[in-house]
């Protein structure tokens, strides 16, 4: 969910990553390279979304929630359960599974 409580972000099985606007009732798809989404986290300012999952490798991607902005794709060598962005939005924290 977005920090302002107006948008729900979700991905389910083979459905694309999407944003559902609670006020308008409209859904829009978000572009991501992650094929199997396992976790989502919105930045505190609501401008970015961290997407964690698998797409041949374990990866996290930081994508803009609106048009424009810069995408960042990070590849990891180990599995994880969740991602979260730091309060200032500068750092991504990923859990690990041993």
Key terms for this structure?
46% strand; 0% helix; four-stranded antiparallel beta sheet; mainly beta; single chain; 98 residues
Taken from the alpha-carbon principal axes, the silhouette is: globular
Q: How much strand?
A: over 45%
In terms of quaternary structure, what is this? single chain
In which order are the strands of the major sheet placed?
A: 4-5-6-7
Biggest sheet: strands, sense, closure?
Answer: 4 strands, antiparallel
Helical content (DSSP H or I, runs of 4+): under 10%
Structural class of the secondary elements? Answer: mainly beta
| Span between termini | 28 Å
Number of strands: 9
Given the structure, what is the number of helices? Answer: 0
| Low-confidence blocks of residues | none
Radius of gyration equals 13 Å
Order of helices and strands: EEEEEEEEE
Mean of the pLDDT scores? 83
Question: Any overview of this molecule?
Answer:
The protein is mostly beta strands and 98 residues long. The protein is built from no helices and 9 strands. It has strands at residues 7-10, 18-21, 27-29, 36-42, 48-55, 57-64, 72-76, 83-85, 92-94. The model has no long low-confidence stretch (mean pLDDT 83).
